[in-house]
Amino acid sequence: IRCRRHAQVDMDRNLRPQNHLLSALPDEEHARLAPLLEKVPGTHGEIIARPGRAIDHAYFPMSGMISVVALMSDGLGAEVATVGNEGMIGLPIFLGSFSTPFHLMWQLSGDALRIRADDLLSVAAPPTRLASVLTTYSQAFFVQTAQNVACNGLHAVHQRAARWLLSTHDRAEGDAFRLTHEFLAFMLGVTRQSASLAVADFARRGLIAYQRGHMHILDRARLEAASCECYGIVRAEFERLLGLGRG
């Protein structure tokens, strides 16, 4: 396994708990993996992979959130799934593919540990613990995407908006994060008016405060009550499979 001059992760154990998948690895596997990891920043709106192009790297977020977005030829789109420090972006690599039909973009700014695709395959081959962890995570990620499909088809916009805000709040560093009505509408695959009505309703009821592109969660318990059951289903499945909670 070759070491890279720009990889400064080495054996800094403080980085491991920041990503739950990496924190599950035994010391000997982390010792093999660490020299191949590079800490990189991600900024809101930054695209790290596009449809039809090779996925060169996998990302283990330590903070922030990355969205998997389906974008249509007419410019409309919707979020398929989200990944924070509970997971990894780059599952197609592990599953034997090196491309995706989706856009992968940073939604909440943060940091990630990045690894080249070929290096990931070299250290994630069975029977390693990393292979087992990524296999289990693949199942959890599939549940999230499948539940999102059901949610988008069956539930009202305000319920879906509440679910989305809860999932984002899970990954935000605190109760406030950057968000515009346009971006929320894009993520939900609805009109800006529909997203704005949901935000206005939540603000009127004291669940959130919103001003000039900044969202502040005020009453998480009531926001959970306003959400559909999909948030709890996905959270419970991640807890069951990976021992952690998220939406």
Describe this structure in words.
The protein is an alpha+beta fold. The protein is 42% helix and 21% strand. It is built from ten helices and ten strands. The protein has helices at 20-23, 27-33, 91-94, 117-123, 129-154, 157-171, 181-188, 192-204, 220-226, 230-242; strands spanning 38-42, 47-49, 57-61, 65-71, 77-83, 103-108, 110-116, 176-178, 208-211, 214-217. The strands form three sheets. A four-stranded antiparallel β-sheet has the order 2-6-4-5. A three-stranded antiparallel β-sheet has the order 1-7-3. Strands 8-10-9 form a three-stranded antiparallel β-sheet. β4 and β5 form a beta hairpin. α5 (129-154) runs antiparallel to α10 (230-242) and α6 runs antiparallel to α9 (220-226). The longest helix is centred in the middle third of the chain and has 26 residues, at 129-154. The protein is globular and about 55 Å long. Residues 1-11 have low confidence and may be disordered.
